[in-house]
Amino acid sequence: MKSLCISTLIACLAAVQVSAADMGPQPAQPGAETFTLGDFRITSLRDAVNVVPNDGSVFGADVGPKAVAEVLTKAGQKTEAIELSVDALLARRGSEAIVIDTGLGPAIPGALASSLSLAGVKPDEVTTVLITHVHSDHIGGLITREKQSAFKHAVIKISGPDWKWLQQQPEMAELTRVIAPQVSTFIPGEDVAMGIKSVRIPGHTPGHVGYMISSKGETLLDVGDTVHSSIVSLAKPDWGMGYDSDRAIGRTSRREVLTQLAADHQLIFAPHFPYPGVGWIVSQSDHFEWLPKK
Ligand SMILES: [Zn+2]
Questions:
Q1: Span from the CA of 70 to the centroid of ligand 1 (angstroms)
Q2: Is 65 inside a domain boundary?
Q3: Within a domain: 175
Q4: CATH number of the structural domain spanning residue 170
Q5: pLDDT tens digits along 262-290
Q6: Owning domain of residue 266
Q7: 93: which strand partners?
Q8: DSSP characters over 6-22
Q9: In-domain check, residue 15
Q10: Which is deepest, 26, 36, 138, 174, by most CB within 10 Å?
Q11: Separation of 66 CA from ligand 1 center, angstroms?
Protein backbone atom coordinates (compact mmCIF):
# COMPACT_ATOMS: atom_id res chain seq x y z
CA MET A 1 0.00 0.00 0.00
CA LYS A 2 2.78 2.32 0.99
CA SER A 3 4.68 1.70 -2.26
CA LEU A 4 1.49 2.29 -4.29
CA CYS A 5 1.02 5.67 -2.58
CA ILE A 6 4.61 6.61 -3.27
CA SER A 7 4.51 5.52 -6.92
CA THR A 8 1.18 7.36 -7.41
CA LEU A 9 2.63 10.46 -5.84
CA ILE A 10 5.66 10.29 -8.12
CA ALA A 11 3.36 9.82 -11.14
CA CYS A 12 1.29 12.83 -10.01
CA LEU A 13 4.35 15.00 -9.52
CA ALA A 14 5.66 13.97 -12.95
CA ALA A 15 2.30 14.85 -14.52
CA VAL A 16 2.34 18.26 -12.83
CA GLN A 17 5.88 18.90 -14.02
CA VAL A 18 5.05 17.94 -17.61
CA SER A 19 2.04 20.25 -17.77
CA ALA A 20 3.91 23.07 -16.01
CA ALA A 21 6.71 22.76 -18.58
CA ASP A 22 4.14 23.22 -21.35
CA MET A 23 2.87 26.46 -19.80
CA GLY A 24 4.34 29.91 -20.23
CA PRO A 25 6.44 31.18 -23.15
CA GLN A 26 7.37 28.53 -25.74
CA PRO A 27 9.54 28.78 -28.89
CA ALA A 28 7.88 29.12 -32.29
CA GLN A 29 9.03 28.74 -35.90
CA PRO A 30 10.02 32.04 -37.55
CA GLY A 31 7.40 33.65 -39.77
CA ALA A 32 7.23 36.76 -41.97
CA GLU A 33 3.97 37.42 -43.85
CA THR A 34 3.89 40.61 -45.90
CA PHE A 35 1.12 42.71 -47.47
CA THR A 36 0.93 46.26 -48.79
CA LEU A 37 -0.84 49.20 -47.15
CA GLY A 38 -0.60 52.24 -49.43
CA ASP A 39 3.12 53.04 -49.65
CA PHE A 40 4.00 50.73 -46.75
CA ARG A 41 5.00 47.10 -46.91
CA ILE A 42 3.72 45.57 -43.67
CA THR A 43 5.12 42.29 -42.33
CA SER A 44 3.80 40.29 -39.42
CA LEU A 45 6.84 38.86 -37.59
CA ARG A 46 6.48 35.70 -35.54
CA ASP A 47 8.34 35.49 -32.23
CA ALA A 48 6.95 32.88 -29.81
CA VAL A 49 3.88 31.33 -28.19
CA ASN A 50 2.64 31.98 -24.67
CA VAL A 51 0.54 29.26 -23.06
CA VAL A 52 -1.47 30.82 -20.25
CA PRO A 53 -3.00 28.42 -17.69
CA ASN A 54 -6.74 28.73 -17.15
CA ASP A 55 -6.37 29.24 -13.40
CA GLY A 56 -8.23 32.54 -12.97
CA SER A 57 -5.05 34.58 -12.62
CA VAL A 58 -5.06 36.08 -16.13
CA PHE A 59 -8.24 35.41 -18.12
CA GLY A 60 -11.54 35.81 -16.28
CA ALA A 61 -9.71 37.23 -13.26
CA ASP A 62 -13.07 38.20 -11.75
CA VAL A 63 -15.19 35.20 -12.82
CA GLY A 64 -12.91 32.17 -12.37
CA PRO A 65 -11.67 29.27 -14.55
CA LYS A 66 -15.04 27.49 -14.90
CA ALA A 67 -16.62 30.43 -16.72
CA VAL A 68 -13.52 30.74 -18.94
CA ALA A 69 -13.70 26.97 -19.68
CA GLU A 70 -17.31 27.39 -20.85
CA VAL A 71 -16.25 30.05 -23.37
CA LEU A 72 -13.36 27.88 -24.59
CA THR A 73 -15.55 24.77 -24.92
CA LYS A 74 -18.10 26.73 -26.95
CA ALA A 75 -15.28 27.70 -29.32
CA GLY A 76 -14.12 24.07 -29.57
CA GLN A 77 -10.88 24.74 -27.65
CA LYS A 78 -9.17 22.82 -24.84
CA THR A 79 -10.03 24.27 -21.45
CA GLU A 80 -6.88 23.92 -19.33
CA ALA A 81 -4.92 26.70 -21.03
CA ILE A 82 -5.22 29.58 -23.47
CA GLU A 83 -2.60 29.68 -26.22
CA LEU A 84 -1.49 33.15 -27.31
CA SER A 85 0.78 34.03 -30.18
CA VAL A 86 3.56 36.55 -29.52
CA ASP A 87 4.18 38.57 -32.68
CA ALA A 88 5.57 41.91 -33.80
CA LEU A 89 5.13 44.13 -36.84
CA LEU A 90 7.50 45.52 -39.47
CA ALA A 91 6.48 48.57 -41.55
CA ARG A 92 8.76 49.45 -44.48
CA ARG A 93 8.61 52.48 -46.73
CA GLY A 94 11.55 53.62 -48.85
CA SER A 95 14.67 53.32 -46.71
CA GLU A 96 12.66 53.27 -43.48
CA ALA A 97 12.29 50.01 -41.54
CA ILE A 98 10.07 50.44 -38.51
CA VAL A 99 9.58 47.59 -36.03
CA ILE A 100 6.62 47.74 -33.64
CA ASP A 101 7.36 45.71 -30.48
CA THR A 102 10.21 43.23 -30.23
CA GLY A 103 8.90 40.00 -28.67
CA LEU A 104 10.37 38.09 -25.76
CA GLY A 105 14.01 38.32 -26.78
CA PRO A 106 16.85 36.00 -25.78
CA ALA A 107 15.10 34.47 -22.77
CA ILE A 108 13.09 31.89 -24.77
CA PRO A 109 14.73 32.47 -27.32
CA GLY A 110 12.19 34.32 -29.44
CA ALA A 111 12.24 33.89 -33.22
CA LEU A 112 11.94 37.62 -33.99
CA ALA A 113 15.51 38.04 -35.30
CA SER A 114 15.04 35.02 -37.63
CA SER A 115 11.65 36.32 -38.75
CA LEU A 116 13.17 39.73 -39.51
CA SER A 117 15.88 37.95 -41.51
CA LEU A 118 13.16 36.05 -43.45
CA ALA A 119 11.70 39.45 -44.32
CA GLY A 120 15.13 40.48 -45.65
CA VAL A 121 15.93 43.05 -42.96
CA LYS A 122 19.10 43.10 -40.84
CA PRO A 123 18.77 44.42 -37.26
CA ASP A 124 21.21 47.27 -38.07
CA GLU A 125 18.91 48.41 -40.90
CA VAL A 126 15.99 49.06 -38.54
CA THR A 127 15.52 52.83 -38.35
CA THR A 128 12.82 53.09 -35.67
CA VAL A 129 11.41 50.80 -32.98
CA LEU A 130 7.97 51.68 -31.63
CA ILE A 131 6.89 50.10 -28.35
CA THR A 132 3.19 49.67 -27.49
CA HIS A 133 4.01 49.09 -23.81
CA VAL A 134 6.92 47.90 -21.68
CA HIS A 135 5.91 44.32 -20.79
CA SER A 136 8.69 41.79 -21.38
CA ASP A 137 6.95 40.10 -24.35
CA HIS A 138 7.11 43.44 -26.20
CA ILE A 139 10.49 44.84 -25.15
CA GLY A 140 12.53 41.66 -24.44
CA GLY A 141 13.91 41.68 -27.98
CA LEU A 142 15.43 45.16 -27.58
CA ILE A 143 18.58 43.45 -26.31
CA THR A 144 20.61 40.49 -27.55
CA ARG A 145 21.76 37.43 -25.62
CA GLU A 146 25.04 39.33 -25.02
CA LYS A 147 23.06 42.21 -23.43
CA GLN A 148 23.81 44.54 -26.32
CA SER A 149 21.29 46.76 -28.07
CA ALA A 150 19.58 44.58 -30.71
CA PHE A 151 18.83 47.53 -33.04
CA LYS A 152 21.94 49.69 -32.80
CA HIS A 153 20.94 52.37 -35.31
CA ALA A 154 17.29 52.75 -34.36
CA VAL A 155 15.47 55.40 -32.39
CA ILE A 156 13.40 53.55 -29.76
CA LYS A 157 10.12 55.34 -29.11
CA ILE A 158 8.30 54.63 -25.85
CA SER A 159 5.44 56.63 -24.33
CA GLY A 160 6.57 58.92 -21.49
CA PRO A 161 4.44 57.20 -18.80
CA ASP A 162 5.68 53.71 -19.76
CA TRP A 163 9.36 54.78 -19.90
CA LYS A 164 9.03 56.26 -16.43
CA TRP A 165 7.35 53.06 -15.19
CA LEU A 166 10.04 50.84 -16.79
CA GLN A 167 12.79 52.78 -15.02
CA GLN A 168 11.16 51.95 -11.68
CA GLN A 169 11.43 48.18 -12.25
CA PRO A 170 14.64 46.75 -10.72
CA GLU A 171 14.45 43.48 -12.72
CA MET A 172 14.53 45.49 -15.97
CA ALA A 173 17.48 47.69 -14.92
CA GLU A 174 19.99 46.11 -17.30
CA LEU A 175 17.72 46.38 -20.35
CA THR A 176 16.81 49.95 -19.41
CA ARG A 177 20.48 50.94 -19.08
CA VAL A 178 21.38 49.38 -22.47
CA ILE A 179 18.56 51.04 -24.43
CA ALA A 180 18.49 54.42 -22.62
CA PRO A 181 20.79 56.28 -25.08
CA GLN A 182 18.43 55.38 -27.97
CA VAL A 183 15.10 56.10 -26.23
CA SER A 184 12.90 59.00 -27.30
CA THR A 185 9.64 59.48 -25.42
CA PHE A 186 6.31 60.83 -26.66
CA ILE A 187 2.91 61.74 -25.27
CA PRO A 188 0.24 59.14 -26.12
CA GLY A 189 -1.72 60.50 -29.10
CA GLU A 190 1.29 62.15 -30.78
CA ASP A 191 2.62 61.33 -34.25
CA VAL A 192 5.68 59.07 -33.94
CA ALA A 193 6.76 58.71 -37.59
CA MET A 194 5.60 59.84 -41.03
CA GLY A 195 2.21 58.20 -41.44
CA ILE A 196 2.21 56.61 -37.97
CA LYS A 197 0.33 58.07 -35.01
CA SER A 198 0.24 56.73 -31.45
CA VAL A 199 -3.25 56.06 -30.08
CA ARG A 200 -3.86 56.26 -26.34
CA ILE A 201 -5.56 53.05 -25.12
CA PRO A 202 -5.41 53.16 -21.30
CA GLY A 203 -5.61 50.39 -18.69
CA HIS A 204 -3.03 47.78 -19.68
CA THR A 205 0.04 49.78 -18.53
CA PRO A 206 0.42 53.45 -17.45
CA GLY A 207 1.18 54.59 -21.03
CA HIS A 208 -0.11 51.76 -23.24
CA VAL A 209 -0.68 52.85 -26.86
CA GLY A 210 -1.73 51.42 -30.20
CA TYR A 211 -0.22 52.66 -33.49
CA MET A 212 -2.31 53.78 -36.47
CA ILE A 213 -0.43 53.35 -39.75
CA SER A 214 -1.92 55.37 -42.62
CA SER A 215 -1.02 55.67 -46.29
CA LYS A 216 -3.05 56.64 -49.36
CA GLY A 217 -6.40 56.20 -47.63
CA GLU A 218 -5.53 52.77 -46.18
CA THR A 219 -5.08 52.24 -42.44
CA LEU A 220 -3.94 49.52 -40.04
CA LEU A 221 -4.12 49.80 -36.24
CA ASP A 222 -1.65 47.81 -34.13
CA VAL A 223 -3.82 47.44 -31.02
CA GLY A 224 -1.01 46.30 -28.71
CA ASP A 225 -2.48 44.47 -25.70
CA THR A 226 -5.98 45.94 -25.82
CA VAL A 227 -7.01 42.31 -26.39
CA HIS A 228 -5.07 39.06 -25.84
CA SER A 229 -7.18 36.04 -26.83
CA SER A 230 -9.12 36.08 -30.11
CA ILE A 231 -11.68 33.92 -28.26
CA VAL A 232 -11.96 35.02 -24.60
CA SER A 233 -11.14 38.74 -25.00
CA LEU A 234 -13.79 39.09 -27.73
CA ALA A 235 -16.49 36.82 -26.25
CA LYS A 236 -16.20 38.48 -22.83
CA PRO A 237 -14.58 41.92 -23.26
CA ASP A 238 -15.91 43.10 -19.89
CA TRP A 239 -14.10 40.42 -17.87
CA GLY A 240 -11.12 41.57 -15.82
CA MET A 241 -7.69 40.83 -17.34
CA GLY A 242 -4.94 39.82 -14.93
CA TYR A 243 -2.21 41.44 -17.07
CA ASP A 244 -3.91 44.88 -16.94
CA SER A 245 -2.35 47.43 -14.53
CA ASP A 246 -5.81 48.90 -13.99
CA ARG A 247 -8.47 46.24 -14.59
CA ALA A 248 -11.45 48.61 -14.39
CA ILE A 249 -10.01 51.01 -16.97
CA GLY A 250 -8.75 48.06 -19.05
CA ARG A 251 -12.21 46.53 -19.44
CA THR A 252 -13.81 49.90 -20.26
CA SER A 253 -11.09 50.60 -22.85
CA ARG A 254 -11.48 47.14 -24.38
CA ARG A 255 -15.27 47.50 -24.82
CA GLU A 256 -14.94 51.04 -26.23
CA VAL A 257 -12.10 50.25 -28.62
CA LEU A 258 -13.70 47.01 -29.90
CA THR A 259 -17.02 48.79 -30.48
CA GLN A 260 -15.25 51.50 -32.49
CA LEU A 261 -13.10 49.03 -34.47
CA ALA A 262 -16.18 47.00 -35.46
CA ALA A 263 -18.17 50.11 -36.40
CA ASP A 264 -15.29 51.48 -38.50
CA HIS A 265 -14.46 48.08 -40.09
CA GLN A 266 -10.88 48.97 -39.10
CA LEU A 267 -8.13 46.56 -40.19
CA ILE A 268 -6.02 45.69 -37.12
CA PHE A 269 -2.92 43.82 -36.05
CA ALA A 270 -3.24 42.10 -32.66
CA PRO A 271 0.17 40.80 -31.45
CA HIS A 272 -1.35 37.95 -29.39
CA PHE A 273 -4.03 36.74 -31.82
CA PRO A 274 -3.29 33.63 -33.95
CA TYR A 275 -0.37 34.41 -36.32
CA PRO A 276 -0.28 36.52 -38.47
CA GLY A 277 -2.79 38.41 -36.28
CA VAL A 278 -4.20 40.66 -39.03
CA GLY A 279 -7.95 41.05 -39.55
CA TRP A 280 -11.16 42.70 -38.39
CA ILE A 281 -13.33 42.81 -35.27
CA VAL A 282 -16.96 41.93 -35.96
CA SER A 283 -19.76 42.97 -33.59
CA GLN A 284 -22.23 40.23 -32.50
CA SER A 285 -24.96 41.67 -30.22
CA ASP A 286 -23.25 41.80 -26.78
CA HIS A 287 -19.84 40.47 -27.84
CA PHE A 288 -17.35 40.39 -30.73
CA GLU A 289 -15.74 37.89 -33.09
CA TRP A 290 -12.44 37.73 -35.01
CA LEU A 291 -12.35 37.76 -38.80
CA PRO A 292 -8.78 37.00 -39.94
CA LYS A 293 -7.53 38.62 -43.18
CA LYS A 294 -7.10 35.94 -45.84
ZN1 LIG B 1 1.67 41.24 -24.45
A1: 24
A2: yes
A3: yes
A4: 3.60.15.10
A5: 999 999 999 999 999 999 999 999 999 99
A6: 29-292
A7: 96
A8: HHHHHHHHHHHHHHHHT
A9: no
A10: 138
A11: 24
